[in-house]
Amino acid sequence: MMKLDEVARLKGDVKMWTRSARRMLSTVAVKRHRAMMKLDEVRPMAQNDAWVAPNSAVVGNVRLGNATSIWYGAVVRGDQNFVRVGLNSNVQEKAVIRTVDSLESGFPAVVDIGEYVSVGPGCVLTSCTVGNNVELGAGTVVGAGALVEKNSKLSPGSYVPPGGRIPAGEHWAGNPVQFVAKLSEEEIDAIKQAADDLSTLAHELKYEYIPLPDAP
What angle do CA 67, 87, 134 make, to 5 degrees? Predict the structure, then answer.
């Protein structure tokens, strides 16, 4: 029979091995995180010069246009329907883009984001359409089936209800959103310039980030 001190020593060894195994599993889980993840054999697609931050998640049926950028902690889920992010558009920190299975209107429940669109930090977009050259301020929520037309701007914290519409060339704000003003040509140009500037920064970050040699 084993002595009490031998049993205690064995228990201590088991605890140590268990802690070591947990650390190893944790390390493997972190190292194996993939920013671009397939779902049901459908892989996200990214065109030339698109940048996806290493701790973001782009899943399933997603297409990223040229020079798009998905920033730290953002999530783009093409798990129920298709998601497109157009040329020079950006999805900033901790924003979430997701789809639903279907819309009551009968229209496709996709997310279609045009060119030169800035999706601000913490935004949530669900099965909606956003035209070209649009600025969505931080924390903006765009409900399922909503339409944000081109050359428009939503202030931080705006809420566009499901099925809502933001007309082209206008600035809206509030919860729910209300009309603020018509955008001037200078304001419209500034939206495009802001998207361009962020695209340039993303390009620099893309070539600064060098993965570890044994990273998957």
Answer: 120
Provide CB contacts within 8 A for 144, sequence distance 6+: 100, 103, 109, 126, 127, 128, 162, 163
More confident residue, 2 or 193: 193
Strand partners, 112: 84, 129
List b or e across 186-196, with b for residues whose CB sees 16 or more CB atoms inside 10 angstroms. Answer: eebeebbeebe
Joined together, the tokens standing for residue 5 give: 């001190």
Contact 61, 83 (CB under 8 A): yes
The arithmetic mean of pLDDT across residues 174-179, rounded, is 97
Measure the CA angle with vertex 136, ends 45 and 55; round to 5°: 45
How far apart CA 35 and CA 13 sit, in angstroms, is 37
- Over residues 84-97, the mean pLDDT reads 98
